[in-house]
Amino acid sequence: MLYVVGVGAAKGYLTDKAKQIISKADVVYGSKRAIEYAEEFIRGEIRVLKKFGREVYDEIERVAKEKNVVVLSTGDPMVSGLGKKINGIVEPGISSVQLALARLKLDLCEVVVVDSHGKNSYDEIEKALEFRGKVLVLADKNFDPSKVRGKVTVLENLGLENERIGEEIKSDLAIVYIER
Ligand code: SAH
Question: Is 2-94 CATH 3.40.1010.10?
């Protein structure tokens, strides 16, 4: 059995369904951060993932043929997460996108969400702004808000002790809201 389970964007956002699935697993894979969010519900063996890529995913899928395996994905697995990469049953989690929408009092249907973490997506953001006027960007420290035209709000470390809403990016856990 293989599950890809969302653990929420911060500690405290794990659903009851996720807790149940995690506690039944023989082996639990996840980044250091994902493991941290779910640790108290893990009873099986913990395998911290340091590398992400096809080889690692193939190995996990092999192990899952014999054991009950859970792969943890921070936030929701289907928001720039592991849900598309690993061939397992996806259990949703509370995404950083949802936390950002709550802080901004915005409806998901009003915005376009663009992934710019670990890549450059300024063209896509420009098109999305032309289309809808409101864009949420999954960003990291390398994102340069001066490269987009519009009013920028940075939401960092959502749900964590050092959550911050401002204009600069200082954290790799940042969502940037742009409004034209
Ligand atoms: N699956 C995750 C997103 C993974 S991609 C989710 O659903 O939240 C990683 C990006 O998510 C980061 O670059 C950042 O843009 C965003 N992110 C993750 N956790 C965050 C948090 N606590 N606060 C703000 N942004 C966060």
Answer: yes
